User: What shape does this take?
Amino acid sequence: MKKILILTGILLTSLFSCNQDDYEAPYGDYSSFNWLTTENSEETDYVISINDFIGFYNLSNNPLTSSWNIPEGTSFLNNEFTDGNDEYSEFVTANGPTNSNQSQANILFTTPGIKEISLNSTFKDSVTDGVFLDDVWKVEKKFTVDVFADINPVFKVLKGDVEIISITENDMPLDANSASWTTISIEAGEELTFVDLTTIGRPDNRTWTFNGGNIESTNSETAVVSYFTLGTFKAGSITAKRNNSETQPAGETIKLIPLNIQVVPSSQPFVQVGKINEDVSEVISFKVSGQIETLTGEEGNFVVHVTNTASGFDKNIDVNSATINSSDLTQIDLTLSEPIFNSDIVTVEYIKGNIVSVDTRVLESFGPINVIMNFEGAMNVEGFTGYEAEWSGSGNQFKKANTEGYFAQHNANKEAGPLYYWRDTAFKKEGNSSMKFETTDAGIPSLARLQGGSFGSLSPVSAGSYVPAVWVYLDSGNTMTSFQFNFTTDTAFVFDISTTPRNEWVRLKLTEVTLPDINTGRLDLNISDSGQADAIVQKLWLDSFDLLIVEKR
Assistant: This one.
């Protein structure tokens, strides 16, 4: 359990308010209402973990009476314990609801929730916030304490849509009982889904750790883990966490996942899956439906064909090496004997050889399949077109769309809005944020502009060939057909979204364009009601606009 290690208090002094000429008592003989606590708080709200304590000190001067009052779920402690104690029950002198007239009140909090502690005092002389009643000055100070329960992980595990186990707050699995845990048998390449449902103790994060899967650990609320290695594994554990802050105390609890996972050979064919990609080093990579055991001497079984109409290039390029990726045993990497360019059309074909999975399957032939070529972006200002910069606190937050480097020309300058543009940290494709566009139920105005900073000073673009691209997420009810980015040098990039899927991130790309040197002007985002004037709420998110550099062969 947590101990209070930092002894920092708030001392609020309220002196009597009578005229000095009317008060002839010696120096120091006056009334004041003061207190000190062992817990930091700028106001009177405190946060603490259950079964922890706060020391309250009555520093009032010359009170007639004083009383600390505590509610149910709290206890008074004597002064004989130290911060080194792990258990405070032997030091309890009284349980709430009750009161004490001791100057020092060490209060233990034994149940979660909001607890209100009060200090009630009476004085002969007036004090700030005092009320004169029954010939004395009465004053009450209330301290609100938010007591956090111990974190107690709750989660479930599914295979597909079928729930395998469900662990509640009442379950505390022990490794000693692992032989009696549920055992799930899955084929190599199949996956399980782990879902964190923890609310007790108000955690704000978690760490999953897994055995035998393709993921060793993750902080995701829902984790999808694939299993390729044959054998039986204990699933792992979850650590639910609460980070220390002014609004909550630190805490964490580890709970085992009481599940044995038995991975058996797959009954499915061993095949290439997903897309084939080129990386910045011109390595071509693809994944297969199982973990690879052996891959040697297979280079001659791959056919890599490259065409480039503009240059008249059309030939097969030999594969120099075909290897298992060192960090992903389900991925094959191909290096070629000649350079390739992202303006090329590249295909990969495999003629069945002897690439074998850990469960003894042989990789099937595939292709030819087009390679997705790598494009580097020209928009090289960190965070600029990803809207990464948090509003600094200067200028109007609403006109600046909650970010830096932009001016939302048609946003209102107050929270009531309309706020067409707003930096959103809760929803993004890349980095830490995206730009949300949201209208009122009147729909899109004649123009809503997000005006960028001086683009030339941020990131000049050299003359060359580019593919304009941006990530977009369209809300399910969005009926929009277009938006556009503009350089104020009269260069516009119009993105058609009339057929773009809703409820998923999609990277939109325009056809290749040739641009001159651009080192002046701004980069603006413009959305108008032209052709999309529906009187409904329109909502979308944008992330990482870029000009992808085209490599000419």
